[in-house]
Amino acid sequence: MERVFLGKAVMPLGVSTGMLGTIRAQLHLREILSAPGVQAKILSPGGNEVLVNFAAQKFDENTGKLVDDTTLSFLDDKVEKFIELIMSGR
């Protein structure tokens, strides 16, 4: 059996129309990804959870692009941390 996530860097994230729409799913996904036999390298929790809430207010309805500056800045920070996680494994 091939273990394709073993040691691979992953960054769970989610977008929802509500306040906490994907937080439970992300918690469960983190448990699965860190389980024996999977053992992905997960961007650590504690401020690194990526949940874009109230999506209707943050995405342009015509283009589908993220337009909320605060969220864009937040995502830039998390992506930078994810790149650091990837680079630390080389």
Explain this structure:
By secondary structure, the protein is α/β, with parallel strands linked by helices. The protein has a single domain, classed as 3-Layer(aba) Sandwich (Rossmann fold), CATH 3.40.50. About 40% of the residues lie in helices and about 10% in strands. It contains 3 helices and 4 strands. A two-stranded parallel sheet has the order 1-3. The protein has a two-stranded parallel ribbon with strand order 2-4.
Put the structure in a nutshell.
This is NAD(P)H-dependent FMN reductase. By secondary structure, the chain is of the alpha/beta class.
Task: List strands and helices in order, with pairings.
Layout: E1 9-10, E2 13-15, H1 23-34, E3 41-42, E4 50-52, H2 55-58, H3 69-88
Parallel strand pairs: 1-3, 2-4
Organism: Lederbergia wuyishanensis
InterPro entries: Flavoprotein-like_sf
Protein name: NAD(P)H-dependent FMN reductase
The helix tally amounts to 3
| Backbone shape | globular
Strand content: 5-15%
Work out the number of β strands: 4
**Percentage of residues assigned to helices:** 40-55%
Low-confidence stretches: none
> CATH homologous superfamily - what is it?
Flavodoxin domain
User: Which structural category do the helix and sheet elements fall into?
Assistant: alpha/beta
Total domains: 1
Separation of the first and last Cα atoms: 25 Å
Spatial sequence of strands, sheet with the most strands: 1-3
What do we call the CATH topology?
Rossmann fold
CATH class: Alpha Beta
Radius of gyration: 15 Å
